[in-house]
Amino acid sequence: MHLAPRYFVPLAVVVVTAACWLIHPLHWALAVMVPVLLLTLWDFGQNRHALRRNYPLIARIRWLFEDLRPYLRTYIVESDREGRPFTIDERSLVYARAKGDISTHPMGTELDVYSDEYEWLGHSIAPNEEAPKSWHVRIGADSCAKPYDSALLNISAMSFGSLSANAIEALNKGAALGGFAHDTGEGSISRYHRKHGGDLIWELGSGYFGCRTRDGNFNPDLFAEQAQDDQVKMVEIKLSQGAKPGHGGMLPGAKVTPEIAEARKVEIGEDCISPAGHSTFSTPIELLEWVAQLRELSGGKPAGFKLCVGQPHEVMAIVKAMIETDIAPDFIVVDGAEGGTGAAPQELTDNVGMPLREGLILMRNALVGANLKHRIRVGASGKVHSGAGMARSFALGADWCNAARAFMFSLGCVQSMKCHTGECPTGVATQVPWRQRGLVVDDKAERVARFQSETLRALREIVVAMGYESPWELTQHDMYQRIDSAKAGPLDEVYGFLKPGQLVEDPDSTQYAHAWRVARADTFRRVF
């Protein structure tokens, strides 16, 4: 745990007292009283803090408990199901699976099954024990020279720079051991992504890191050079992310180390800016044309985009552009507003963006309603950490899932909420060498692979229990939730699910009539 500078003097008092006691026990009173008196006088005379001037020495207790509060709350005060963003139960499940421990639970559920916290998947009287042991989803089958057979759970976007070198290494080695993919995040491909050869999904954000010109624009030649490497399996454009949708970012020059500069193709020590929006396109049609260009430049690998859904009419505008141009991305990843990040403005995190469930349903309806779903695979990302969470996403239209924080837990993250400070106690989200040292790559890589494997095993158990052959057979009819205190029903009684072609054939019969009417393929703005 990091000790704030304001505790240095009290700590010095303790050290001096202990030293005096060892020298001569009779001097302990003097050893305590003199430093305490000096500290009291210091607080009384300083002019920065009103509390310390009015309540010398005693006011320091406030800051002590303020710093200890997250730890006391997590380990002493909160129940197993109260913590956020992830509860102790949720984290414990990941830890157990990563370590190979027993992840079973005695005495039945602790949820109130008659409240809205309980929702369930309908099992079958005739479970299908003959279901395949595992599944993969082919992405880019219709449009790519090099389609990718993706695992159903992959590592979501987390950049080198946000995560430590050891964390990136462990994640990628775990992906190589388990046969699944590792999304680079918008910080591009570092030497640590390359070291163990795990499959990569290269994410391109608005800063075009790893394939940018000196002034920050997209460089197609530099992109092609890296994207055609065999380790890169897919290319993902980041339109927005759940934790800070519509917001750019900046890595201060002081944090741009030689290794980060090498990966991002920026200058050492210069501010590394990610604009809020892309400069490569400004309309839905231009976005799709860029997707097609990336597919070609990569040598025929799947290309798509990730977004946190914001304005429904923008999704409809992209769908109209697909119909008009006959260009479709190979995949779309829907990120929920509950997604995480190392640092984001709290007001965006708490108030902007559509949660995964609503965003996934909207994307599913847009693609199914326009007869496009068969061409495009849909990924789901946003607090996915269990087989049950994956099953829910499949029931809403996902073809695979990505997870970020769950894989951080598998590395040993304890949710200390220090990601943005560089003071991560477990070496996951820090660039401080001695903090990284605690994260042993070989050991954590095995945990990463084991967590992914055990989570997919749990998904299969659910599929078997429901009597299905694959998770893609799950639909909204299989998922139930409380409608009110006296009634529960399948999800299609809560949300509207469109039939194939309904959006283009009869948009006025859908809940998206207005969004469809004001959407146009040549602009992201509403057109009335």
Automatic annotation (TrEMBL):
CDD domains registered for this protein in UniProt: GltS_FMN
GO biological process entries: glutamate biosynthetic process
Sequence ranges assigned to domain Glutamate synthase in this UniProt record: 152-468
Keyword Glycosyltransferase found: no
GO function terms (MF aspect): glutamate synthase activity
Family: Belongs to the glutamate synthase family.
PANTHER family xref list: ARCHAEAL-TYPE GLUTAMATE SYNTHASE [NADPH]
Protein name per Swiss-Prot or TrEMBL: Glutamate synthase domain-containing protein 2
